[in-house]
Specification:
The complex is a heterodimer. Chain A has helices at about 45-55, 75-85, 105-115, 120-130, 145-160, 175-195, 205-210; strands spanning about 1-15, 20-30, 35-40, 60-65, 70, 90, 165-170, 195-200, 215-220, 220-225. In chain A, helix 3 runs parallel beside helix 5. In chain A, strand 1 (about 1-15) and strand 2 (about 20-30) form a beta hairpin. Chain A has a six-stranded mixed sheet, sandwiched between helices. By secondary structure, chain A is an alpha/beta fold. Chain A has seven helices and ten strands. Chain A has one domain (about 30-60, about 80-230): P-loop containing nucleotide triphosphate hydrolases (Rossmann fold, 3-Layer(aba) Sandwich). Chain B is of the alpha+beta class. Chain B has helices spanning about 5-20, 20-60, 90-100, 135-140, 150-155, 165-170, 210-215, 235-250, 255-260, 265-310, 310-320, 325-365, 375-400, 405-410, and strands at about 65-70, 70-75, 80, 105-115, 125-130, 140-145, 160, 175-180, 185-190, 205-210, 225-230, 260-265. In chain B, strands 1, 4, 5, 6, 7, 8, 9, 10, 11 and 12 form a ten-stranded mixed sheet that branches. Chain B has a two-stranded antiparallel ribbon with strand order 2-3. Chain B is elongated. The chains are: A alpha/beta, B alpha+beta. Bound molecules: adenosine-5'-diphosphate (ADP) and magnesium ion. Magnesium ion (MG) binds near residues 48, 93 and 169 of chain A.
C-alpha cells in the first residue's frame, strides 16, 4: 500500500485581477514506504504547489490526498497539525528558519510543539545537527550561517520528529558540490535504512539519479520522466 | 491540553520576547506610555477634585445641616419665647448618626459662659460643650495636646481644650487643671493661635458635651443644644436633609416643625456647588477618556505592528505542526508578559508624573493640590491595558493562525 497517495489534484490560483490560473490540472501520485521520488520540471510548472499540497500546508481546489490511509480532507485543522508535526517533514525552497532562534532551537521546535521534554528534544536535535554536519554551529543564528548551512538546519528540522514522508523543495539548490553530496547521501540513507519516503523537487542530476523514480511536471500534470540522461 | 504542552507554548512565548529585545522593549514602551498617561490624568484629576471639595468643605457651610430647637417664634417682628422646646441629648446625636449612616458626622453643641478661677482678678471664658464629632467640623489645629475622645464625652470626663488666649492668661499647659465655675477640668489640648475655623479665639474653652452643666454658669431657661450634621460630600446634603427630617418626625412627632427647624445654606448655592463639581468631573472624565483612547491606541499599535511582522513566524510554526491554540498560547503569554510589565511600569511612571505635575501646580498657584493615588485609578489602568493588550496582542495572531501555513509564510 502506498504511504502517500494523491488522486485528481487540482489547484487553481486566483490572481489579484480576478483571473484564475490552473497550476495543477489533475495530478495522481502514489509513493511507497521508503521510496525516493524525484520531481523535475520547468520553473513555474507547479512543483512547489504540489509539494505544499502534499505537505498539508495548503488545500487543493479538488482531489484527495491520503497519508498512511488518512485523508487530509477528513481531518480537523487540529489533526492536520498533528499530522504535519509527527508524520511529515518539509524542507522549503527557501529555508524558512526562525531568525531569532539559533540552529539548535530551530531544530528543537517541532519536538517542543509535540510536547517532548526540553532535555530530550535538545539531545535529539543535537544528534540531527551532527548528522547534517553542523555539530559546531548549534548556537548560531540563521543569519550567521551560510546558505548551505541554513538549508541543512532546515533538513535537520524536517527530520527531527522521524517523519514517514520527507518533502523537500530544491534542497540542494544553494549547495556546493561537496555539501550537496553530503545531503544526497543523507537522503539515500533515510530512504534505504529508515524507510522514510522522499519526495524531492530538484534540478540536480546527481540527486535525481539516486531516486527510485523521476517524474516530470508538465502542463499541470505529472508524467513519467525518461531518466537523468534526458535532464538538461 | 497537557500541562507540559501549555508550559512549552508559554516558554516559546517568553523565549521569543527574550530573543528579540528591541521589539519587546518597544512593545512594552507602548504599554508603559499608554498606561502612564491614563494614570497621570486620573491621579491629577482626583487630586484636583479633592482640592475643590476641600475648598467647599473648609470655606463654606454648604455641607452643614443644623437641627435647632425652636426656643421662640417671631410674630409681627417680635420674638415670643416658647415655654417648652426639645432639649437634645447625646442619645439624640447617636440616633441621628445611626439614621444618617457613614455619609455624615453628627455633633451637638451648647454654649455658655463660665467664671474662671485665676489667682488675682476674676476672669470669664466662653464655653462650648461639644461632642467628639465636632472635631470633624471645627478642624482645630493644636499647639499642644489633642481633642477629647468619644469615650471621654460618653463617660463625662472633666477635660478641656483651651483657646490660646485662655492658655496664656491662666498659664496653662497640657495636664494642668483649669477651674470653670469652681469645677476642676484637666487640660488635654491647647489650640494653636491661627486655629482655622474655630470661633472661640478670645478666652474660650471646649469641654465635653456631657459636662456642660458643671462647666457653665446656670442659664435662665434650659439650655438648647443644637445638633450639627456635616455631610461628607456636597452631593449628599439633600439626601441627608430628607433623612434628618424623617428622624425629627420620629423623635418629635408629626408636628415636629413647630418644635425644631432644620437649616441648610440656600438651595441655590448648593445647586451651584454641585453643578461646579459635576462640570469638573465631566471635564476630567473627558480628559481621562481621551487619554484612555490614546493610551489604548498606543498599546494596540505596537502590538499590531509586532503581530503583522510575525505572521511569517506563525506560518513556519504551523508548518512544523503548531496548532491554532499553540500559537494563541504563545502570543497570549507574550501579551500578558508585555502588558503586565508595561502596566506596572506605567502605573509607577504615571503616578510619579502626576505628583510632579501637582508639585508644579502647587508652586505656581500656592494651592495645596496633591495627586491622588487611588486603587480605582490603578484598576482602570490595569483593566484597560489588559483588555487592549490581550485583545490586540492575540486577535491578529488568531487571524494569522487561521491562514493556511503557506499563506502565512508568504504574507508580506
Ligand atoms: N499564492 C499564489 N497565488 C497566485 N499564483 C501563485 C501562487 N503560488 C504560485 N503561483 C503561481 O503558480 C505557478 C506555479 O508556481 P510554483 O508551484 O511555485 O512553481 P515551481 O515551484 O514549479 O517553480 C506560478 O505561475 C506561480 O506564479
Ligand atoms: Mg518552486
Amino acid at each position: 500500500m502506498a504511504i502517500l497517495e494523491a488522486a485528481g489534484l487540482r489547484k487553481v490560483y486566483r490572481g489579484g485581477d480576478g483571473s484564475s490560473i490552473e497550476v495543477l490540472a489533475g495530478v495522481d501520485l502514489a509513493v511507497q514506504r521508503g521510496e525516493f521520488v524525484a520531481i523535475v520540471g520547468a520553473s513555474g510548472a507547479g512543483k512547489s504547489t504540489l509539494l505544499q499540497l502534499l505537505g498539508a500546508l495548503d488545500a487543493p481546489t479538488a482531489g484527495t490526498i491520503a497519508l498512511a490511509g488518512e485523508l487530509y480532507a477528513d481531518q480537523t485543522p487540529e489533526r492536520l497539525a498533528v499530522l504535519r508535526n509527527r508524520k511529515l517533514g518539509f524542507v522549503f525552497q527557501f529555508h524558512h528558519l526562525l531568525r531569532e532562534f539559533n540552529a539548535l532551537e530551530n531544530v528543537m521546535m517541532p519536538l517542543l510543539i509535540a510536547g517532548t521534554a526540553p532535555a530530550a528534544a535538545r539531545s535529539r536535535a543535537e544528534e540531527l545537527l551532527a548528522v547534517v554536519g553542523l555539530a559546531g554551529r548549534m548556537t548560531h543564528r540563521p543569519a550567521a550561517l551560510s546558505g548551505g548551512e541554513q538549508q541543512r538546519v532546515a533538513v535537520a528540522r524536517a527530520l527531527v520528529a522521524d517523519p514517514l514522508v520527507l518533502l523537500a523543495d530544491e534542497p540542494s539548490g544553494n549547495l556546493d558540490y561537496h555539501n550537496s553530496e553530503l545531503l544526497h547521501d543523507l537522503f539515500a540513507t533515510l530512504a534505504r535504512q529508515l524507510e522514510t519516503a522522499l519526495v524531492v523537487v530538484t534540478h540536480n542530476r546527481l540527486l535525481a539519479g539516486r531516486a527510485d523514480r523521476i517524474l516530470a511536471m508538465e502542463h499541470g500534470r505529472l508524467l513519467a520522466h525518461p531518466g537523468v540522461e534526458a535532464m538538461p | 491540553m497537557h500541562p507540559s504542552l501549555l508550559a512549552s507554548s508559554f516558554r516559546v512565548g517568553v523565549q521569543s520576547l527574550r530573543l528579540n529585545p528591541l521589539r519587546t522593549v518597544l512593545s512594552t514602551l507602548g504599554v508603559v506610555i499608554g498606561v502612564a498617561s491614563l494614570v497621570a490624568v486620573l491621579a491629577v484629576g482626583d487630586g484636583a477634585e479633592s482640592f475643590a471639595r476641600e475648598q467647599i468643605a473648609t470655606t463654606t457651610d454648604l455641607q452643614t445641616l443644623l437641627v435647632v430647637p425652636n426656643t421662640g417664634q417671631t410674630i409681627d417682628g417680635i420674638r415670643i419665647p416658647r415655654a417648652t422646646y426639645p432639649v437634645f441629648t447625646l442619645a439624640d446625636v447617636d440616633s441621628l448618626a445611626r439614621a444618617l449612616g457613614p455619609r455624615a458626622t453628627v455633633s451637638a453643641t451648647v454654649t455658655g459662659g463660665a467664671r474662671v478661677t485665676l489667682p488675682g482678678r476674676a476672669r470669664a471664658a466662653a464655653v462650648m460643650a461639644v461632642t467628639s464629632g465636632a472635631e470633624e467640623r471645627l478642624r482645630p489645629r493644636f499647639a499642644a495636646g489633642r481633642f477629647f475622645t468619644a469615650a471621654e464625652v460618653r463617660s463625662a470626663e472633666r477635660v478641656a481644650v483651651a483657646s490660646p488666649a485662655l492658655a496664656t492668661a491662666a498659664h496653662l499647659s497640657v495636664g494642668d487643671t483649669l477651674r470653670l465655675e469652681g469645677h476642676a477640668f484637666r487640660v488635654v489640648g491647647i489650640l494653636a493661635p491661627a486655629a482655622r475655623r474655630v470661633a472661640p479665639l478670645g478666652m474660650a474653652a471646649l469641654v465635653p458635651f456631657t459636662v456642660a452643666d458643671s462647666a457653665m454658669a446656670p442659664p435662665a431657661s434650659p439650655r438648647a443644644p443644637q445638633i450639627m450634621v456635616r455631610a461628607a460630600r456636597v452631593e449628599t446634603v439633600d439626601t441627608l436633609r430628607r433623612l434628618a427630617e424623617r428622624w425629627a418626625a420620629t423623635r418629635l412627632g408629626p408636628g415636629w416643625k413647630d418644635e425644631a427647624s432644620i437649616e441648610t445654606s440656600s438651595p441655590a448655592r448648593l445647586v451651584q456647588a454641585r453643578q461646579g463639581i459635576r462640570v469638573f468631573k465631566m471635564v476630567m472624565g473627558a480628559f481621562a477618556g481621551i487619554s484612555l483612547v490614546v493610551g489604548g491606541l498606543g498599546i494596540m499599535n505596537v502590538l499590531l505592528a509586532a503581530v503583522t511582522e510575525r505572521t511569517r513566524e506563525i506560518g513556519i510554526r504551523k508548518a512544523a505542526g503548531a496548532r491554532q491554540r499553540d500559537i494563541m498560547i504563545q502570543f497570549l503569554a507574550e501579551s500578558v508578559a508585555i502588558t503586565g510589565a508595561g502596566s506596572v511600569l506605567g502605573v509607577v511612571l504615571g503616578l510619579g508624573g502626576a505628583f510632579a505635575i501637582t508639585a508644579v501646580i502647587r508652586s505656581a498657584s500656592e494651592a495645596p493640590i496633591y495627586a491622588a493615588a487611588t486603587w480605582q485609578t490603578v484598576a482602570v489602568a490595569a483593566v484597560v491595558s489588559i483588555v487592549v493588550g490581550l485583545a490586540f496582542g492575540t486577535f491578529p495572531a488568531l487571524r494569522a493562525a487561521r491562514l493556511s501555513p503557506i499563506d502565512a509564510i508568504r504574507h508580506e
